[in-house]
Amino acid sequence: MIVTVRVATLTILLTMLGTALVRAQTMPPQPPPTEVAPAPPPQPAEGNQFSSNELIDAGHRFFGGVSRGLAMIVEKAVSQWGLPNGYVLGEEAGGAFVGGLRYGDGTLYTKNAGDLRVFWQGPSIGFDAGADGARTMMLVYNLPRTDAIFERFGGINGSAYFIGGFGMTALVANNITIVPIRSGVGLRLGANLGYLKFTDRPTWNPF
What we know:
By secondary structure, the protein is α+β, with helices and mostly antiparallel strands. It is built from 3 helices and 8 strands. It has a single domain, classed as Rhodococcus equi virulence-associated protein (Lipocalin), CATH 2.40.128.
């Protein structure tokens, strides 16, 4: 009698084990638990672009001293137009009474295409008056090659900003955008229309 009970119990256990194995084989495999990927780190500037810190450091050395206004206006330019692949450091002088003229010279700096001496001049007409002499930093965007800067760049309406003693506007030609940042005596404020013409040698002809 005891042997019969043990055989029956063993049979039940074997049946239950077989059922469990069949179920395990017929159930679809469960995917491993997924882990939440960490947020990607901030993307660095591409090889031919200048970061905000590089621009601010170059501006501090050029304009002299540490200026909170320069950092703010560079950040404003970067937030609106992105990271430039070139910049110009130079000096200019200009004056206006309804009609005006501006002349300047400096050096275009790039990471991969070398540096280039440039000159610029241009007329303006509108509701402004005054005279100024200023050190100028120009951020250059989408420059395919250094000599592509030798164009006439017209102003973009509504792109003028004045922060902490610095003035910034934007000029465009052939998908190249130039953003002059000026600091100096008598920054002219006003609504004016005009352009800047870049050349490889100085000239008095602004046209």
